[in-house]
Design a protein that fits this description.
Helix content: 25-40%
Distance between the termini: 15 Å
Number of helices: 6
Strand order of the largest sheet: 8-7-6-10-9-11
Largest sheet: 6 strands, parallel
CATH class of the largest domain: Alpha Beta
Strand content: 25-35%
Radius of gyration: 19 Å
CATH architecture of the largest domain: 3-Layer(aba) Sandwich
Shape: elongated
Low-confidence stretches: none
CATH superfamily of the largest domain: SPOUT methyltransferase, trefoil knot domain
Number of domains: 2
Oligomer: single chain
CATH topology of the largest domain: Alpha/beta knot
Number of strands: 11
Mean pLDDT: 95
Order of helices and strands: HEHEEEEEHEHEEEHEH
Amino acid sequence: MNPLLRRSTAHVFVDSLLTPTLNSDDQHHLARVLRLRAGESVSISDGQGRWRICRFVSADVLEPATEIETVERVFPEITIGFALPKGDRPEWIVQKLTEIGVDHVIVLHAERSVVRWEPDRAERNIAKLVKVAREAAMQSRRVWLPTVSGPVRADQVLGGSVSLAEPNSDALTLAATTVLIGPEGGWTANELSITASHVSLGKSILRVETAALVAAANLSALRDR
């Protein structure tokens, strides 16, 4: 990570790097929560790999201080799909997957899922998870925003490198850049037949949120090597 990014007092996403403006939530966060003072550095990004440093002037004024830089996307892109757990655990999962560096997050409706989102609720909840991902990306100084989508069935996740997390299976490698985590009741035989690629995340039976993080952390470590 560029030292300027790491040392910036705050990091925000904007629509334009040429004429940066903050939305009301970010204005409140910088001015009222972080209590930034005039002259402090704020890194801004368009969420598509481009970023620059600005000087904080006031809640609604950022003054560009450096040229725009570009960070190329890291390949292979990592995708984690997870069956919906109860409560606020989906938000926690998305937050941590974003911090780890996952590129795409997919919410799943598995056959044994206890929690399911009806269409009207799904739209609101996905929008909430997108906001969670954005905030986590700001905290971790990411310049590429992850995508958050769903809910879909496991067989609706497309791609040639899709694997299901399943105990007593093959070791995780970068041959499986999309890993789907089933519900706590496990995958059904029908779901396991979707793909011949099954990967193990260890000897223990993990909760959904633990399995999602283990898969993400291991894939990220393999990619970094």
